[in-house]
Write a structure and sequence with these properties.
Strand order of the largest sheet of chain A: 1-11-8-7-5-6
Number of strands of chain A: 11
Structural class of chain A: alpha/beta
CATH topology of the largest domain in chain A: Rossmann fold
Radius of gyration of chain A: 19 Å
Mean pLDDT of chain A: 97
Number of helices of chain A: 10
Shape of chain A: globular
Order of helices and strands of chain A: EHEHEHEHHHEHEHEEEEHEH
CATH superfamily of the largest domain in chain A: NAD(P)-binding Rossmann-like Domain
Low-confidence stretches of chain A: none
Distance between the termini of chain A: 46 Å
Helix content of chain A: 40-55%
Strand content of chain A: 15-25%
Largest sheet of chain A: 6 strands, parallel
Oligomer: homodimer
Number of domains of chain A: 2
CATH architecture of the largest domain in chain A: 3-Layer(aba) Sandwich
Chain lengths: ~280, ~280
């Protein structure tokens, strides 16, 4: 059994991004991420700590803009506008979901496509649907693809079963897997016979967000499992959508949780922030 | 075996659209489609004749804007701009593919979302990806959904195999089927074992664009087949992606070609043009 760890993937992406940052800085261009956070949800704070660590390792600028949880729509939109218009910002990440009284609709249509490094805006969502290579995908979905590519997993003709149809993982990753010539089946809560759909897969991408829902008896020898889940088990311990202990004894290879896809996400965010700086300064290069 | 004919579906949509046109006209609103055609490809002309017939039946205005095949990008964009800005136009259809020297990129980003009744623009493509109910889908993909709904085919938990991953049918119809709770598998030219993927399906949506590629031995009793193909067979006769003669003796129900999905498309175009007028005049209603 091969453990598909995220760290070497992330290190590889980070090393390339660092080189590119040096190159851009030598031309007077300084990539910088703006993180917009409303309130202080523990999930957001944990992700933010990961981002800060990654960006500091790579020598990339960042700035966190925090708004109180009870801020107005006007507060949020103004905070966003300022970053969207600021030439020194090359990527904007807005933590979602937003509190219920706020809408992301204005941001979705107004965000500069070059700065929309987590694919929350119309332009990148449409481009992802169309299959334009230039589209930024949501960072976690892109992290799945980076991991697959890093470990040399050929997708052509492979049967991939994706569990979950969310906007940030299930849907975009399905489109990207298909663009790489996989035969994709997308399962969800209304799928009738999930074990059957899993059994026939060469590769399983688990992104349902339900702790250990994929049990040992649902997986088969030879399979590759990418577990995107980030859940807490009954003891409050971080775990994936797959019962790792049971599955790892059966399948060919599997990503651990933690230490798998989740470890790659912040490096994709870094990569895209650097790419954003290059795109925004295309005229100057 | 039930033949799933398009005519009653189209008639039903057309009747509703006609009623709505009367209602809108009584408020001084006049839906109108602008068809922009570059050159005179036989396929485009055939579709155009179908559109004219449908719109005349329904009492809906339309106008065809023809540009010579060797027109410039500026000619095309100006022709489009005029329709996009003209308040009397509520829907814009641009025949595609465009000649190779022309790009649809400007139109794609500039089209008024309310007039983008065939989903060529960013806003509707992104909305389709996100799953916003308000999105216009490409007319043929929407025609598949209208046919499925008209015949009372419940999609929840059903296994649907879609053959073809095109931007106008395969991809959008897969997203819409999934939104209706089907478990969707998307096959294409790189799929390894197409007969196997077809065998396990409850419903097959054939949109590969390859004459009679789905043969009798690939289908099973009980299946529902939606054939979106519009091809010419070896005798030059119009045929679908499915060998109708062979398949119809086996499956539960199937759409004929011609007379199936193709017969519904122009009624969807009509429906969307009327919807466009209502949306554009929302303030006035």
């Amino acid at each position: 059994m091969t453990e598909l760890r995220g760290k070497p993937v992330a290190d590889n992406i980070t090393a390339k991004a660092s080189e590119r940052i040096e190159e851009l800085k030598s031309k007077g261009i300084n990539p910088k991420l703006a993180v917009i956070r409303v309130g202080a949800r523990p999930d957001d704070l944990a992700y933010e700590r990961g981002i800060i660590k990654r960006f500091e390792t790579a020598g990339c600028d960042y700035e966190v803009f925090e708004l109180p949880e009870d801020c107005t729509q006007e507060d949020l939109d103004s905070c966003f506008d300022a970053r969207n218009e600021d030439d020194s910002i090359s990527g904007i990440l807005l933590f979602r979901p937003l509190p219920k009284h706020l809408s992301g609709n204005y941001i979705r249509s107004a965000v500069n496509p070059d700065k929309d490094i987590d694919c929350m805006g119309l332009y990148n969502q449409a481009s992802l649907f169309v299959g334009t290579k230039k589209a930024y995908a949501p960072c976690t979905a892109q992290a799945v693809m980076e991991l697959i590519h890093y470990y040399g997993i050929d997708l052509t003709g492979k049967r991939v079963t994706v569990v979950g149809r969310s906007l940030v993982i299930g849907k975009p990753v399905s489109l990207m897997l298909m663009a790489d010539n996989a035969t994709v089946t997308i399962c969800h809560t209304r799928t009738k016979d999930l074990p059957e759909e899993l059994k026939k897969a060469d590769i399983i991408v688990a992104s349902a967000g339900s702790a250990k829902m994929i049990t040992g008896d649902m997986v088969s020898p030879g399979q590759i499992i990418i577990d995107v889940g980030m859940n807490n088990d009954e003891d409050g311990k971080l775990c994936g959508d797959v019962d790792y202990e049971a599955a790892s004894a059966i399948v060919d290879s599997i990503t651990p949780v933690p230490g798998g896809v989740g470890a790659v996400t912040t490096s994709v965010l870094l990569q895209n922030t650097v790419e954003g700086a290059a795109r925004l300064n295309n005229g100057k290069l």
